[in-house]
Amino acid sequence: MIKRKYMRTRQLKPGMKIDHSVVDRMGRNLVARGAVLDEYIINSMLKLGIMSVYIQDGEYEPEDPEKLMSAEAKKNVEKLRTEDRSKVTLSDSVRKRVSEGIQYIYNNADDENLANTTDSIAGELLNAIESNDAIAIDIGELKTSDEYTFKHSVDVATISMILAKQQGLSPAQIHSIGVCGLLHDIGKTKVPLEVLNKPGRLNDDEFAIMRQHSVFGYQMVKDRPEFGPEIPFAVLQHHEKINGAGYPMGVTGEKITPYAKILSVADIYDALVTERPYKAAFSQRDAVEMIMSMTNELDMTAMKSFLESMILYPVDSIVELSNGEKARVVKNSPHYILRPTVVGLESGKVYDLGEDLSCACIIIK
């Protein structure tokens, strides 16, 4: 039986876990169910007028979706279920090698074997993509490390490689952009630890130092001939924006290398969906919506490739609809990644969230 406790928001303490999602009037996720509360989240809920919430007060007993499904639901699931596009999957042995390799890179950033190690990891990722002709990614399946910098670097590399494949780049180019992704944050090894590991938000001076990491990274790899010119420039420019609002140089679209344009989308998305000491993770849906709103900052070709590559709701996953019904995902479309086709577990009703206008007001919570 689910254990939960109703509490006044003013009585909440950091470290407690919220037992339901907090959404705004548009249905956008503000605090995810199961999020660990901190002072910032508690104060934000108070400012929004959220005066009471349910808090987890014990363990959950997972529900078996099969027990909730009606006969009509089972019939429609069987009829409509369509396998997802091939996704990147990493075997345990590959995941272990990738994890060990990325840790070596960031712990030995000045080592003469940096290029060889990075090349080897990118090769492992490319093999994983080519082994089942993967053209999509479910970021939750990678799980290469519990340490943010290591996980983030592998995530960005893998997402970027899939985007490059979507754009029709050659295997050699896909491999190169994987190297760029693995190294894009290498300059953070030169950032003072008190800034890099600060548990709270950075002040203006600290943020100015942190923004130099792309310059540091460029300086670390630019004189290594084995990398070639495109990799140092991608490391340097991965925070640039096509409207000139990025850093470190504030250059505009035509002056940004194509690899950096791809890295930028992958970097922003993975940072948004990852929990950090100073912020809760955004839901995948909210992160995608934020990416979609950045049309004046991000390259449209890279954004289109991203939207056609991500799988947010894998087939067979259970979701909760805004009408209160739980449903099983039976089909995804690269054109409507936020709105798959689902079947209500109890009603058996088919909700084609992408194409059926009668479902226009229904979203996945």
Q: What would you note in describing this structure?
A:
There is one protein chain. With 365 residues, this protein is an alpha+beta fold. It has three domains: 4-56, Molybdopterin biosynthesis moea protein, domain 2, CATH 3.90.105.10; 65-84 and 315-365, no CATH class; 92-309, Hypothetical protein af1432 (Orthogonal Bundle), CATH 1.10.3210. The protein is 42% helix and 8% strand. The protein is built from 14 helices and eight strands. It has helices at 39-47, 65-68, 71-80, 92-107, 114-131, 148-166, 171-183, 193-196, 204-210, 213-221, 230-237, 258-273, 284-292, 300-309; strands spanning 4-8, 22-23, 29-31, 52-56, 318-320, 326-331, 341-344, 350-352. Strands 5-6-7-8 form a four-stranded antiparallel β-sheet, covered by helices on one side. It has a two-stranded antiparallel ribbon with strand order 1-4. A two-stranded antiparallel ribbon has the order 2-3. The longest helix has 19 residues, at 148-166. The model has no long low-confidence stretch (mean pLDDT 89).
Strand content: 5-15%
Question: Averaging pLDDT over every residue, what do you get?
Answer: 89
CATH superfamily of the largest domain: Hypothetical protein af1432
Coarse structural class: alpha+beta
